[in-house]
TrEMBL record, chain A:
<dbReference type="InterPro" id="IPR027417">
    <property type="entry name" value="P-loop_NTPase"/>
</dbReference>
<keyword id="KW-0813">Transport</keyword>
<dbReference type="InterPro" id="IPR017871">
    <property type="entry name" value="ABC_transporter-like_CS"/>
</dbReference>
<dbReference type="InterPro" id="IPR003439">
    <property type="entry name" value="ABC_transporter-like_ATP-bd"/>
</dbReference>
<dbReference type="GO" id="GO:0016887">
    <property type="term" value="F:ATP hydrolysis activity"/>
</dbReference>
<protein>
    <submittedName>
        <fullName>ABC-2 type transport system ATP-binding protein</fullName>
    </submittedName>
</protein>
<feature type="domain" description="ABC transporter">
    <location>
        <begin position="5"/>
        <end position="234"/>
    </location>
</feature>
<keyword id="KW-0067">ATP-binding</keyword>
<dbReference type="InterPro" id="IPR003593">
    <property type="entry name" value="AAA+_ATPase"/>
</dbReference>
UniProtKB/TrEMBL annotation, chain B:
<dbReference type="InterPro" id="IPR013525">
    <property type="entry name" value="ABC2_TM"/>
</dbReference>
<keyword id="KW-0472">Membrane</keyword>
<protein>
    <recommendedName>
        <fullName>Transport permease protein</fullName>
    </recommendedName>
</protein>
<keyword id="KW-1003">Cell membrane</keyword>
<feature type="transmembrane region" description="Helical">
    <location>
        <begin position="167"/>
        <end position="186"/>
    </location>
</feature>
<dbReference type="GO" id="GO:0140359">
    <property type="term" value="F:ABC-type transporter activity"/>
</dbReference>
<comment type="similarity">
    <text>Belongs to the ABC-2 integral membrane protein family.</text>
</comment>
<feature type="transmembrane region" description="Helical">
    <location>
        <begin position="55"/>
        <end position="73"/>
    </location>
</feature>
<dbReference type="GO" id="GO:0043190">
    <property type="term" value="C:ATP-binding cassette (ABC) transporter complex"/>
</dbReference>
Length: 309, 253
């Protein structure tokens, strides 16, 4: 089946010349959970807002399930749900009314059973007659999700769903997302939290300065993360690696004081014992030994810094 | 046309109205009653008949227009500005609806509220003044046209406004003077010639005159001129809204 969302060369410039999106190309697969990681101001929200119709693109195209978001906006938008980042709700309205309103707004006939299902799914049924302002912050966020789900969307955008949310609620959110995925909903979420992407995403995209730096299967990224580095600090600097120690996995730091050995933690033999024995045999004296793990965070920070430089 | 969406916006807006029912109904009823007591009772007793009608009866159409116009503007401008202020408007923008449907929902609700209040004032007036309506159908038509056209105007105002101050300033500085100088409380013919000419540039004069004609069969300006004037005003508002729709001005970046 073709990808559910196709983004081609999407650009967005604001008055004054600021480029929020610099030619984004991205295909989102049917039924996947895609996490978009990026620092504040990277363009995550602009990307989502443009797909959802809140802002207009300067150039480029987006199709959702084959429907162009401009030429065929009714068909495209009717299958999209959006959970915004800010908690924007009518404070004096009752919970059930705001959810009913959302369903009608997206052109679906009123259906009490469907509304009840959504409210129960989000543990809001007890609160259905409360005014929105009487709810806690976490509950309000659930109301936003309920509104986004009220018209049974096939594609759901969650803009920082767990920003400022306590640990327990974050876990709840992840469960909700997992259930939606099981129902066949495609989910795109933006987040600052790398552990969030690790916990629930199938693929991870990194956005910085309006550009998509990479999109990869989470498992591929995790494999990269499985690599560890062993730093062997030497008492006396050397100019080159002794011939007996030469290997692809071993590098020398620029100042000659550290041997850097890269290995896979998941393989049966890491080669550390042999390396240390060889180092001793070569007559090098050790000052210290330490290990480092490249996390998704390192990859992420590396990419963002590279771009800023 | 996405009628379900229009209905949703309309019903949601009407809920807001009924939620604040005391404020929505009582305020205009009390202020109108005060007008009748002060203008109709205290001052009116010293004024001779105007165009063959008692002064208290003469001001009834003007008072209804005064309220319907101000209510239309404030309902429609607030109705569209409040979601912008709260940020809930992004949901409207992301919905599979056109701008025409958005306008129909919000303006329809604002005009309905203004009509309800206009009707309440008409009923209140019967308690204070003895009067009759010669041409009820024309009266209803004028009320509907006025509430729709000024709700359109209020919608534009709400889209334009960047804060609550701006929301208040146009009604306060432009609309209220136009209504008061539009012959709500007097006949234009009572003015000196020069001010009669100036008054002809005030669109509200045509509205009140036409509306009064539907009550008593007499008017400051010919009824056809009144209809053309209100038609022109509605046309201008629709053109501006069409332009907003085309450009996304202050709506969609």
């Amino acid at each position: 089946m073709p990808d559910i969302v196709q983004i081609n060369e999407l650009r967005k410039s604001y008055k004054g010349g600021f480029q929020a999106l610099k030619g984004i190309n991205l295909a989102i697969r049917r039924g996947e959970i895609l996490a978009l990681l990026g620092p504040n101001g990277a363009g995550k929200t602009t990307l989502i807002s443009t797909i959802c119709g809140i802002t207009t693109a300067t150039s480029g195209t987006v199709t959702v399930d084959g429907h162009d978001i401009v030429a065929n906006y009714r068909a495209a938008r009717s299958i999209i749900g959006l959970v915004p980042q800010e908690i924007n709700l009518e404070p004096f309205e009752r919970v059930i009314n705001t959810v009913r309103f959302s369903r009608g707004l997206f052109g679906k006939p009123s259906d009490d059973a469907a509304i009840e299902k959504v409210l129960r799914q989000l543990s809001l049924w007890d609160k259905k007659d409360n005014q929105v302002r009487e709810l806690s912050g976490g509950m309000k966020r659930r109301v936003l999700i309920a509104k986004a789900l009220a018209h049974d969307p096939r594609v759901l955008f969650l803009d920082e769903p767990t920003a400022g949310v306590d640990v327990e609620l974050r876990k709840d959110m992840w469960d909700i997302v997992a259930k939606l995925k099981a129902d066949g909903v495609t989910i795109i979420l933006t987040t600052h939290y790398i552990e969030e992407a690790e916990a629930i995403a199938d693929r991870v995209g990194v956005i910085a300065n309006g550009e998509l730096m990479l999109v990869e299967d989470k498992d591929t990224l995790m494999a990269r993360m499985g690599q560890k580095q062993l730093d062997v600090l030497l008492t006396d600097p050397i100019t080159e690696i002794p011939a007996a120690l030469q290997s692809d996995a071993l590098e020398l730091s620029e100042d000659g004081t550290t041997l850097i050995y890269t290995y896979d933690t998941r393989s049966e033999r890491t080669g550390i014992t042999k390396l240390l024995a060889d180092v001793a045999a070569a007559g090098l004296v050790l000052r210290d030994v330490q290990t480092r793990q490249s996390s998704l965070e390192d990859i992420f920070v590396g990419l963002v810094k590279e771009d800023a430089a | 046309m996405n009628w379900t969406a229009i209905k949703s916006i309309y019903v949601f807006e009407m809920y807001r109205f009924f939620r604040t029912i005391a404020q929505s109904f009582l305020a205009p009823v009390i202020s109108t009653s005060l007008y009748f007591v002060v203008f109709g009772g205290a001052i009116g007793s010293r004024i001779q008949e105007v165009d063959g009608i008692t002064y208290a009866a003469f001001i009834v159409p003007g008072l209804i227009m005064l309220t319907v116009i101000t209510q239309s503007i404030s309902n429609a401008s607030f109705g569209i500005y409040f979601p912008k202020f709260l940020g809930t408007f992004s949901e409207i923008l992301s919905a599979p609806i056109s701008f025409i449907e958005i306008v129909l929902g919000y303006v329809g609700a604002a005009a309905t509220k203004a009509l309800i209040i206009g009707a309440i004032i008409l009923v209140t007036a019967f308690f204070f003044v003895d009067f009759s309506i010669q041409n009820p159908l024309a009266m209803i038509a004028f009320l509907v046209l006025t509430s729709v056209s000024f709700s359109l105007f209020g919608f534009i105002l709400g889209v334009w406004a960047g804060n609550f101050e701006q929301l208040q300033i146009v009604p306060l500085l432009v609309i209220t003077p136009l209504i008061f100088l539009g012959g709500s409380f007097y006949s234009i013919s009572m003015l000196p010639q020069i001010w009669q000419s100036v008054s002809m540039f005030n669109p509200v004069v045509y509205l009140i005159s036409g509306f009064r004609w539907s009550f008593y069969g007499s008017a400051d300006v010919p009824i056809l001129t009144s209809l053309v004037a209100i038609g022109f005003f509605t046309g201008v508002c629709l053109t501006v809204i069409w332009w907003i729709f085309r450009t996304g001005w202050r709506i969609r970046q």
